[in-house]
Design a protein that fits this description.
The protein is an alpha+beta fold. It has three domains: about 5-70, no CATH class; about 115-190, no CATH class; about 195-285. Helices cover about 25% and strands about 25% of the residues. It has a five-stranded mixed sheet with strand order 9-11-10-12-13, with helices on both faces. A four-stranded antiparallel sheet has the order 1-2-3-4. A four-stranded antiparallel sheet has the order 5-6-7-8. Strand 7 (about 170-175) and strand 8 form a beta hairpin. It is globular, with a radius of gyration of 19 Å. The termini are far apart.
Length: about 300
Amino acid sequence: MRNPGPAHNILPRLHGVKKTPNGWEARCPAHDDQHASLSIGTGESGRVLLHCHAGCTPEAIVAAVGLKLPDLFPSNGAAPKFTRPTAPKDEAEPLRNLEKEAEFSVNCRDDLSANEDALAYLWRRRGVGCRTASDWAVGVTDIRRDSAGVIVGATWTLPILSHVSPRPLIGVKLHRDPPRHGQSKGGWLVRGGAALFPLPEAQRLQRGAEIILCEGELKALAYIEAGLAATSSTTGAATRWTPDMAGRFAGLTVVIDPDHEESKAARDFVSNAAQALWRVARSVEVCEIQQECEVSA
């Protein structure tokens, strides 16, 4: 795989992204854009080129999505390494680079926001409403319907951003809901290592505030839908907690909510997280209440 360029920093943050012969087009985040006025390209040096046909400056565009102009230039450091899991036999060939990953993720997000049936299914199955889904860029693909046209299954997509500024895309997670017979419940298109989703710092928590650390990104979003702060580790019980990753919980009250309390994976999840966080968090405790996946409309 070639080294990813800086376009994957900005593409996941834009709406209405579409591929063009010279790059991409999207709705400009710096004004109320309804016509995809923003053109995105790549210069000879590898930097991202932005041009808003309505006149917005590059400074205004990057500021509107939480970036800075240097984030449009290639990093001078070594590019991160990415490895791919083996795709299921019936799964399409994984996308070839992070820029295509970002484009795929944005298209899935836009598909979900325009599909009322899929949004209702996400609420019934996972307790995640349309506002929360939009805030955290949840998308949908592979919608499955019965003979009457009713949705009976879908695959949710989640863009995973690095916690290191400028928080570039490091992968896209897939969640099949429910899993097809004989298949896993989901996986990665590109695995970028352990990360937190949703990012704790993006929830603007004060020191001492409570945050729930749970198994499963969609479960964390259901807690956020209910008005609670929550996050999850994208690699679950297999997470190798780094000091920087644990440091995102500094001064917070952490409540660990395992998926299945009696399973070995759940015990490992609790043990690994508690050992990593007890030195930096204000306190760490384990939740005994199990959350139902099915939520009545």
